[in-house]
Design goal:
Blueprint: E1 3-10, H1 13-25, E2 33-37, H2 40-50, H3 62-66, E3 79-82, E4 88-92, E5 96-101, H4 103-109, H5 119-126, H6 131-142, E6 146-153, H7 157-166
Antiparallel strand pairs: 1-6, 2-5, 2-6, 3-4, 4-5
Helix pairs in contact: 1-2, 5-6
Length: 184
């Protein structure tokens, strides 16, 4: 069954927490959800509220294993700065540090593509996200938004889109026509 990495962009913590909890109730595991946010305090709060695995101990998903393939893609180079409790702080030129948790963050932090990478957009491209979408997610991060990414099979995809749109995702315009809500 074809897997797809789906992203949701949230302007506030409450919507992100609610989306994570809804994903979990629908059968997604916490350690299958990747979180990227520019503000470490928000990342810590999300971790506390949702128990998202920030330890980096989880085996990488197929997307996480492929994240290094995008190492040469993107503007500038990203460097893992490290962080408390395994929460990775990634230095992205032009964007500053980005706190990250989940399987994609573990792939980045674990050195899948080392210190000189193509930043978040490069990692996402390597994980199977189109370059256009990866660039959009990086822009959303630069603007201070929270980006959630979850891998979904064909049977789960519509539900993930619905969960993200229900919880006020800012990027519904990136979704297929049939799952967009008019108010997004």
């Amino acid at each position: 069954m074809e897997m797809k990495l789906i992203g949701g962009v949230f302007r506030n913590e409450e919507d992100a927490v609610n989306a994570i909890q809804s994903l979990e109730r629908s059968g997604h595991k916490k350690d299958d959800i990747s979180v990227f946010v520019k503000n470490k305090e928000i990342a810590d709060h999300l971790s506390e509220e949702t128990d998202i695995n920030t330890s980096g101990d989880k085996d990488q998903s197929s997307s996480g294993k492929d994240a290094g393939k995008g190492a040469g893609i993107g503007a500038g180079s990203g460097v893992v700065l490290g962080g408390a409790i395994g929460l990775g702080l990634l230095a992205i030129p032009g964007a500053g540090p980005i706190a990250a948790a989940g399987p994609l963050a573990a792939a980045i932090q674990g050195g899948t593509f080392g210190a000189a990478s193509g930043g978040i957009a490069g990692a996402l491209t390597g994980a199977g996200v189109s370059k256009e979408d990866a660039d959009e997610y990086e822009k959303y991060l630069e603007q201070g938004n929270i980006v959630l990414l979850v891998e979904a099979d064909e049977n789960q995809q519509e539900n993930v889109y619905r969960i993200f749109t229900t919880h006020n995702t800012a990027n519904a315009g990136m979704y297929p026509e049939g799952v967009r809500h008019d108010n997004n």
